[in-house]
Amino acid sequence: MTTKTGYRYIVTTEGVRGGHAILEGTRIAVHDVIGLLQNGETVDSVTECLPGVSRAQAYECLAYYEDHRDEVDVVVARQMAERG
User: Which domains are assigned to the chain?
Assistant: First the structure.
């Protein structure tokens, strides 16, 4: 089941990426985009690294992050720790 989040491009889908917020129609999670940005990528380079992600979607991930910082930070930190 897909649930709208109040953002144009962002949804949650049960069973996809652990139920975390994703870009609608993809398996790209908001935390994927934010993790790249926190590690020095720019919005423009994110759109090159993740084909199919528009600048508008990347900026919306930033907006979602501002509203859900604690939730996203936990997931980003967990992913970074797994990469070790």
Answer: 2-83 (1.10.10.10)
